[in-house]
Amino acid sequence: MLCLLALALAAAPAAAQFMAGVTAGDFYQANAIVTGTDMRQRPWGIAQCLREVLVKVSGDPKLRDDPRVAELGKTADKYVISFDYADLMAGIPKKDDQGSYDRPHRLTVHFDPPKIDEMLVKLGEKPWHGDRPVIVPALLVRGPHPPPYVLSALIKAGAEQRGSFAEAASEYGLTARIPSETEIAAWGAKADNFPFPAAAPPDDPEPSEVIVVGTLDWNEALPGWVGAWRARWHGADHRWGISGVNYDAAFRDIAAGVVRIASGNGATD
After folding, report:
1. Residue 268: CA atoms inside 13 Å, Cβ hemisphere, count?
2. Cα 183 from Cα 44, distance rounded (Å)
3. CA distance 42 to 44
4. Of 174, 268, 192, the residue nearest 230 (C-alpha)
5. What's the start-to-end Cα distance of the chain, in Å?
6. Are 241 and 217 in contact (CB under 8 A)?
7. Helix 42-58 crosses helix 113-122 at what angle (to 10 degrees)?
8. What SS3 class is residue 44?
9. By three-state DSSP, how is residue 139 classified?
10. Contact, 231 vs 217, CB < 8 A?
């Protein structure tokens, strides 16, 4: 029994505060990085955003690779309310006559919620209107350069990974909270002490956070990261993992697993 995964640690207040800025409308918009602001990549970008929105609203990661979704992406503009661009190189002088033609932009697309909900029904899915847990990673990271470390809110070595984890969670309509040094100390979690010691479960049978315990190891032979995760949700233990990927993909795998079990859209494996 993964008692650690059920730690209370004042989870409910923290989760409520963290989710306060997230509304249902946020699930119906997504971003894609495109070149320029013309039609060269706009249809592709809108199609990518549609795919992400369908996954976020339904809580079903399988839709990401569903060929029916790829087909719908060809006419994704029919479901768009509005879109806008942000120049990712704003403030950097233009070096040629092309100006912003080849500059990378963040395309943000806002979709029509009723049309998205109707599309999900036609795909045999439904909108996920239930409470969404906050992901709390308890990860031992053993990278290409020692020493290993437990990912925390302040550890310098994990600065880029914290941002990546938050982005991965957002792609699935979730939020993430990286544990503090104080929490990690309370768990008894150390880089040389894994699996982490267990702790008493909370009284709350439906915690607002999902603690994902795992290891993220760099494998030079692949090359790539190998991740092994485990989590507990509503009394059931779940295990999954991934290998031969960058850590962005590894964190997306964690988020996909959590959203799948929390939304009731299947097991993690």
Report:
1. 24
2. 42
3. 5
4. 268
5. 19
6. no
7. 70
8. helix
9. strand
10. no
**More confident: 88 or 269:** 88
The angle that helices 159-171 and 247-263 make with each other, rounded to 10 degrees, is 40
Residue 131: CB partners within 8 Å, gap ≥ 6?
Answer: 208
- Across the beta sheet with 80-87, the strand order is 29-35, 104-111, 80-87
Give 65-79 pLDDT, tens digit per residue.
999 999 999 999 999
Using the structure block, give the residue that is written with the tokens 């990927």. 245
d(CA 264, CA 59): 8
Please check the confidence at residue 12 and state whether its pLDDT lies above 60. no
Closest CA to 197 of 184, 207, 210, 208: 184
Distance CA 13, CA 41 (A): 42
The first and second tokens of residue 255, run together, are 């988020």
Q: Among 89, 112, 119, 196, which Cα is nearest to 152's?
A: 196
Which CA distances in Å does 105 have to 83, 100, 249?
12, 9, 22
What local confidence, expressed as pLDDT, does residue 249 receive? 97
Beta pairing class for 134-142 and 209-219: parallel
Distances (CA, A) of 79 to 119, 146, 175: 10, 48, 25
Element (H, E) at 29: strand 29-35
* Dihedral (Cα; 27, 58, 166, 70), 10-degree rounding: -90
Count of alpha carbons within 13 angstroms of residue 22, beta-carbon side: 20
Predicted local confidence at residue 24, as pLDDT: 63
